[in-house]
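Protocol check, entry for the methods section draft. Step 1: assemble the input record (protein sequence plus ligand SMILES). Step 2: submit for complex structure prediction. Step 3: store the structure tokens unaltered in the notebook. Ligand used here: L263DTV3. Step 1 record:
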Amino acid sequence: MNQTPAALDDAGLTRLAREIAAANPVFFLDYDGTLTPIMPRPEMAQLDPDMRLRVERLAGRCPVAVVSGRDLENVRQMVGIPGIAFAGSHGLDIDAPSGRQRLGEPFRPALKRAIPALEGALAGIEGALVEPKLYAVTVHTRLVDPALKPRVGEVVHDVLAGEPTLRHMAGKEMHELRPELDWDKGKAILHLIEAEGWGGHYPVVLGDDVTDEDAFIAVKGRGLGIRVDDGSGRPTAATVVLPDIPSVGRFLDAVVAALG
Ligand SMILES: O=P(O)(O)OC[C@H]1O[C@H](O[C@H]2O[C@H](CO)[C@@H](O)[C@H](O)[C@H]2O)[C@H](O)[C@@H](O)[C@@H]1O
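Step 3, stored output:
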């Protein structure tokens, strides 16, 4: 892990954007915390129209994929840009011009049991939100009384104990139950590079969360990981850090301008 990735001011950001544009890039963009600020509830994290326009302009100039922990159809609808590639459920569900890959399909029966079990067991805990996805289920704790958060964790682990084909993953104020598969955002990105014929492009990954670290590692040595700082001070495998989401906007503007 790189403890101290390079922090960029606006001049450095413009310089980096020009270098990237000259390298024939392909962009892999995370959604929550990267294109949109973290909000109290998932449905509140709507994409700002200016950010949508930037991503749209970028996609008019080079390949772009949105790689998210969200359900694929949900993030596709939130982004609202047709024709680009999407990976949902942390890469377990991919829809790209080359076709669809649904690695989570064999785990649907387990998820169909786990989702109502979680909804039932958490119904009495105010603020606990269950977000069902095609290939995972997320339990959000952001709105739960801090004293009750450990109880939410216990419920999640109780349900997990009955589902050996699922595993637990933690994120920002959330627990996720997902398929017990050796697959992550990094593997999804490498799959997309191969399947879409993007091997001649320079992969640039933007992300903020723990699950984006797999993506930074996947492109290390052949591309660039850019972490959007979330103030956690967490070590990262990214090479560069952007201080916030507005700087992501300025960076994408600079790349678009440099691509012409
Ligand atoms: O990979 P991402 O696109 O960053 O998705 C990761 C998770 O993002 C969402 O949850 C997070 O954002 C919510 C809205 O800002 C916030 O309320 C929550 O606390 C965060 O964990 C999404 O709801 C999850 O499904 C994604 O896995």
